[in-house]
Fold this sequence. Notes:
α2 runs antiparallel to α3. Helix content is 21%, strand content 45%. The protein has helices spanning 2-18, 88-117, 122-148; strands at 27-33, 36-58, 63-68, 75-76, 81-85, 150-152, 157-159, 169-170, 175-192, 204-208, 217-228, 234-242, 253-269, 274-276, 279-287, 297-310, 313-318, 325-329, 339-346. The protein is built from three helices and 19 strands. It has 352 residues and is of the alpha+beta class.
Amino acid sequence: MLVLRTISSVIFLIGFYQYGYCQAPTLGVVVETATLSQASQQIEALGTAKANEVVDISVSVAETVKQIHFDSGQRVSKGDILLELEDSEEQALLKEFQFTLDEAKRQLRRIQQLANQGDASQSLLDEKQREYNVGMARLTAIKSRLNDRIIRAPFSGMLGLRDISPGAFVAPGSVITRLVDDSTIKLDFEVPAIHLNDLSLGNSITATSKALGNQTFIGTVHSIDNHIDPVTRSIKVRALLPNLNHQIKPGLLMVVYLHSKPRQAIFINEAAIVQQGLNAFVFLAVPSQNQTDPDTLIAKKISVITGIRQKGKVEIKQGLQPGDKIIVHGNMKTRDGSPITLKSSATGADNP
């Protein structure tokens, strides 16, 4: 008898709720408005920073250091004098050749005047012209030798450590210091070949490094290698990063995020997703069809197709429209068609 009474009570209560004799309790939920935001396919990799230009400053002649015009870590401009080698012998030869050239020039002018008057032969004029040309060639050669003894910066940049002193003897190829142009950084990284179709020149990238406090640097893909590594099955990509404050040092290891296929998409909080097997659902807060109380909200369960996940957000490829009110918190206790009340409202999906 007790069992029969219990079953009868349950049937009575179900009918009571079903036919509207008693209203089911409402559940307080938090909703979020679906909005469009910028999205992209993101590929993560490790990259190595390289200077835009780098060169070891060396000499091409064997000579003694006369004067040094730079300090370690100094920034220089293109054409600045960095080092002077001993040139007393070349300076003496320069004066000698200049005197010889001046004399050859005077003799050439005198013979030209005589030749114009018919008092000098053409052969004598040719001889004086040859002597003048030889003098010019010798003067040019000695100026070139003098120029080899003055070391200038081939481009603007920052110098490395100075490991030489005045009076030291240097031989051809001796490295004086290293000059790097770090105004722009070349960031080289490798991308798996499976993402080959996602690569194109001009793709935007962001890069961070723990050494720089995870500060974000923005750049673009400048070049893509012409072959895939047969061992790693990856392709090398080079991006350019502006380095106006010279924070990035060549050789620094950086985490790279390559962004491809930019598009507008709906991103919602991943807490809004209700997973049932292989299917994903969300609950919307929609007005009820009750004409006596049109302000009442109910939960509506819909199927969605998800895409990429970024920073706690999920891309919704299909199933939602901008402006939809999605239940973010309280959805695990919500049922399709159940009445709900709004506890608070989120501002919407953040840009991933």
